[in-house]
Structure formats: C-alpha cells, structure tokens
Amino acid sequence: MTLSLASLALAAAAVLSVASPSVNALNPITIKGYKMFDVQSGEYFAAKGIAYYPRPNAGELDANNVDFFTDDHYDIWSKDLPYMAAAGANAVRVYAVDPSKSHDKFMCALSSLGMYALVDLGASCEGCAISNDKYPACYPPSLKARGEHIIL
Questions:
Q1: Structural domain boundaries of the chain?
Q2: Which of 68, 83, 113, 128 has fewest C-beta within 10 Å?
C-alpha cells in the first residue's frame, strides 16, 4: 500500500467519523505529508488505536468479509468500544465495511467515546485488487468508486 491509498483510507475515516449525526461530533482530521492534524485546532493528531474485526470463532458469522459494524450487529461491537476507550484508544480500524448498510450507531458510539474510525477500503469486491502497476494506475476504478461510496 502506498501513501496515497493510505491517505485515501484515512481521509475516508476522518469523514466517516463525523458523517453520522451526533451531539458529540469530533473535529475532522486532515493529512499533511505523513502526519494527521485536527482541522479546527491545527494540533498534531496521533492515532492510538486498534485493528478491530470482532469475528466470532464459531457459528453463522464465523466468516470473512462480514460487515460487523452495521446497526444490525450492535450486540457484537457495543460491549467492546468502552474497553478500547478506557485503554486510551482514539481510533479504531475496521474491515469489510459494506457502504450500502447503515453504520450510524457504530459511528455515533465511537464519536461519543472520542474515537475515530479508520476504514479499510479493501474488500472482496469484483475488480478491487491492487495491481503491480505504478501509482496511480495500480488502483483500479472499482476500488476508487468503492472508496467514494464509503466516504459519501
């Protein structure tokens, strides 16, 4: 992964972390060079977080590419977030996000705990594989479209 795709993923995360309506909305984060900054204060933002994919070890949901962060899966993730916040996390990296489903409860829960979502763009979507071509040709149009769909 090059910095450009990482930047796109982090930008998506910053947008998503504040896109859901919330009384405790977090300040947007921007990327300048290799660092992240709070847009409103200008202060350096050091992400302290966890890569989180709460896949059960057995049962129907013991599968890859399941979006566990939807409103429907509240019971799976809701108990874990307060522990992450208590441990000092301010960011959570999530995987297998389906942009066609609602993530409002998850995003609002993160925001209320002062945490940002870092959304991984990779997925098992048709034509989303990153090639060995040089940047920017290595990123297929379908991956770019997926990123835009997640952000918007």
A1: 3-151
A2: 83
